[in-house]
Amino acid sequence: MKLQAQTVPTFNGDPHKWQTWKKKARAAIGTAGLLRILDEAEYASSHRLENETIFLLLQVATTEGNASFLVDQFDDDRDGRLAYEALEKWFEGMKLQNETAEDIRAKLDKNILSTKVTATKYINLFLSYTKQLKDLDESYTKSKTISLFLEKITDPDYQTTVEMCQAHKYDIQECIMQVRSKERRLEREQEGQKKKTITVRKSSGISQIIEEKKSEESNHMIDISDFKTELGYYSIPKEVWTSLSNQDKTKIKEMNMTLRKKRKATDQGNKGTSPSISNRRNAHVNTDEENTQREEPNKRQRVVHFEDEEQTMNGPNQDEGENTQEINNRRGILRFNLKSSSST
Fold first, then answer.
1. At 149, which helix (H) or strand (E)?
2. Where in the chain are the domains?
3. Global confidence as pTM
4. I need a labelling partner for 290 at 20 to 30 A (CA). Which of 177, 208, 326, 340 fits?
């Protein structure tokens, strides 16, 4: 089985990426069945061609990084196993190993299950960092690992799960399983809420369409001519107006406006011939004056009649035949008659 160079990833010499690169490189070499070249010296010596192939792969993977000198020092013998062993000693020495472990612990401490981080991502990072510490022989104890895993869960939705794990004293695998199960339940609830929201929106849309249909049908059933007044205007009640279509509303407004304009023009045309209020008042005044003038001749006639009667009474014929007492009596009767007639 041939091993292709592109299956082994490149390595730039970054100590923090050593463990990840080592894992991928060994997986690629193991797939080709050449992993024994790296782990067994005798097997590497007896299979020189395969050992040289491993050397060339490592040389290509490190050629653009700071680790290339570690591989190139074995260029004469082209010993792949020794080149890989040099890389391990350099990047997994005691001092460098301690520094790398501290970096991993810092990353593990920053890994938090919050409302912004999913449980799946949190679990994957936690397992990856703890595995790296284990590879460096710097792993935590079982109780410390469980405590650290539960303490970094700050999402309120998982607090009940955390308390249950602490109460039952679950191991790390059981704790991981409980958190993962809680995440699936939350996902199902959120999906149900989304479907419910969509259903409500759809149903509200259908209800709106039905109401519009009913409104249209009711509009067709209303005859606006029933609300026409004697003067030709339309007087629509509020509850009926709101149910009318926009077309009917516009029609009613235009017709009422047209009638107002016509009536206004008619009133202005008749303004010169129609009697004004002052004219009507003058007519009433003139009538009163005419009645007064009609009554005044009667009074004059009565006065004249009285004067004539008085002159007659004072004439020479009356002085000869009647005495003064009889004349006074006749004057009193005449005045009484005049007062009675005027009061009547």
1. helix 142-151
2. 5-92, 96-188, 226-266
3. 0.42
4. 340
Hey, what long-range contacts does 119-122 have (CB within 8 A, 24 or more apart)? Answer: 119/155, 119/158, 119/179, 119/180, 119/182, 119/183, 120/180, 120/183, 122/152, 122/153
Reading the chain (344 residues) residue by residue, the pLDDT tens digits are 455 545 788 998 888 788 889 989 998 898 888 899 999 999 999 999 999 999 999 999 998 888 999 999 999 999 999 999 999 988 887 666 677 888 889 999 999 999 999 999 999 999 999 988 888 788 899 999 999 999 999 999 999 999 999 999 999 999 999 999 999 999 998 888 876 665 555 555 555 554 555 555 455 456 777 777 877 777 888 777 877 888 888 888 888 888 888 888 877 766 655 554 445 545 444 545 555 555 555 544 444 444 444 444 444 444 444 455 666 666 665 555 555 555 54
Only one residue has tokens 């009913």, namely 214
C-alpha to C-alpha distance for 336 and 161, rounded to whole angstroms: 127
d(CA 275, CA 272) in angstroms, rounded, equals 8
Q: How many CB atoms lie within 10 A of CB 276?
A: 9
The answer to whether the beta carbons of residues 176 and 145 sit under 8 Å apart is no
DSSP string covering 152-195, please? TB--GGGHHHHHHHHHHT--HHHHHHHHHHHHHHHHHHHHHHHH
**What distance in Å separates the CA atoms of residue 265 and residue 262, rounded to the nearest whole number?**
5
Please, are residues 123 and 182 in contact by the beta-carbon 8 Å criterion? no
